[in-house]
Amino acid sequence: MASATGVPVAPVFFTMADVELVDLDVAPRLASWMASDHPDQMHLEEFLAHAVGVLAPRLSGLPDPVALRLDVALPVGAQLLEHHDLDNYGFPLAMRISRATGRTLASVRVTKSYGETSRVGVGPAIPAAGPSIVGSWTQVRTSASASTTAYKQQIHDQLAGTPTLTEGPVAVELSFTVGTRRSWPNVWKPTIDALGPLLGMTSPERSWHPRDGRIIDLHLHHHVDDSFGHDVAITVSAAHAG
């Protein structure tokens, strides 16, 4: 492991038990911040209600820690590597699950590929010795609010000099160690926004717009350390996929 701060933190990784995924009757929808009567928001609500209805009975019988997996099927012709950012599928579902069931997920994995039917499942989160991605990994640490540019800048600066992955689809695995005051899904997007050194940028003129559409497999893990306060330690692993 390479520690960008010189203060390494033991990261936590999980795999999900071999649980059968369930076909979804409503296609996954991206996060929306529109008004409640906007079509995008209404379609998202329809998906979340359906997915939570499928998952809640399965969650009720599972002990902590729990893992979620969502496999998003996109129609042939969709721009697989330029849009359909996976964190924007996983975030609203993880937040709705927590709100509806009171459960905090320890691990969330979201994938995308061409297909006709999306699938979802929950199961025990089984501790793993390391990331599922083979290769080196880097750890960064930040103390800034995730809603500020400083949060992204601290991560970006610590990743400076990291080789950019060459063209093609990629898998990204992030292990977050946070204090009790942090809602870990809220740090997903700003963290990924800071991964330009790894993923490349959509345009040199656009800050915090990495080519995260390239991510076809996103695996996120969560660990709470009471001593962390507002700090976040992020172990970053990325490689070509498929």
- How far from one another are the termini? 24 Å
Q: What number is the mean pLDDT? A: 92
Helical segment count: 5
**What fraction strand?**
25-35%
Low-confidence stretches: 1-6
Described by strand count, sense and barrel closure, the largest sheet is: 10 strands, mixed
Q: Give Rg in angstroms.
A: 17 Å
Overall shape: globular
User: Roughly what percent helix?
Assistant: 10-25%
Structural class: alpha/beta
Number of strands: 10
| Order of SSEs | EEEHEHEEEHEHHEE
Structure description:
By secondary structure, the protein is an alpha/beta fold. About 25% of the residues lie in helices and about 30% in strands. The protein contains 5 helices and 10 strands, in the order βββαβαβββαβααββ. Strands 1, 2, 3, 4, 5, 6, 7, 8, 9 and 10 form a 10-stranded mixed beta sheet that branches. β4, α2 (about 85-100) and β5 (about 105-115) form a beta-alpha-beta unit. The longest helix is centred in the first third of the chain and has 22 residues, at about 40-60. The two termini are about 25 Å apart. Residues about 1-5 have low confidence and may be disordered.
List the helices and strands and how they pair.
Blueprint: E1 2-3, E2 13-16, E3 22-23, H1 39-60, E4 66-74, H2 87-101, E5 107-114, E6 119-128, E7 138-142, H3 149-159, E8 170-178, H4 188-193, H5 196-199, E9 215-224, E10 232-240
Parallel strand pairs: 1-7, 4-5, 8-9
Antiparallel strand pairs: 2-6, 3-6, 4-6, 5-9, 7-10, 8-10
